[in-house]
Amino acid sequence: MEDFEAQIPWGTVYINVPPPFDKAKHPVLALKFRKFWLNHSRAVWERKFWVPISRKFDLAAYSKRNNRQLLAKNAFESLIISAYEELGAEFFVKLDSQKPRHPGWWYRGPVVALFWLQQMKGEDAMWEYVMNQALKRFPVCKVPLPLTASNMEGMRKRESASVWIDNPRTERILYEIAILKAENEAGMVKGDGELESAGTNSMEGLRGGAKIEVSVRLS
Is 182 among the domain residues? Predict the structure, then answer.
């Protein structure tokens, strides 16, 4: 995989991914979005092509990859919060419902461990996956995930696919998303937020200064 990674496939995949909002209306957010992909595209890509690295025999490479993952997660958390402050929780509800998924957003899932893919399907199948999927925005591994028990965290059911970070900083966002989804399912609300599709359409989020009222009592 070293020769393949030397071609920097993540640079090709993520070079011009569009933001899921109107960048002309939200230039600061658009800049933050652009910087994320410039700085962290490798971390996003390598989760779908997880090369076996031994901590014992190559601690430097092992640590560098872990650091890339942590930095990308922290940077995307900051992007999520900025998007919420400008566009509100409705923005994420729209992202979650959009099919196909928006190419500009990071829907972090479990890693595709190439070693375990090879063990399950054979080396030819593993390389077929790499060669056919490496330059696709959403690679498809035709094997049920996770491939390892340690990968279970990535499969945990979440309230939102677009807000996949669950901590005190995102707790309020996830709560509002849950409320909006419940209201939408009950037919009480018609959304009119902002979301830029992979093509041209866009919509304004509920938050432009307005605050979402939550009247549900927590048990």
Answer: yes
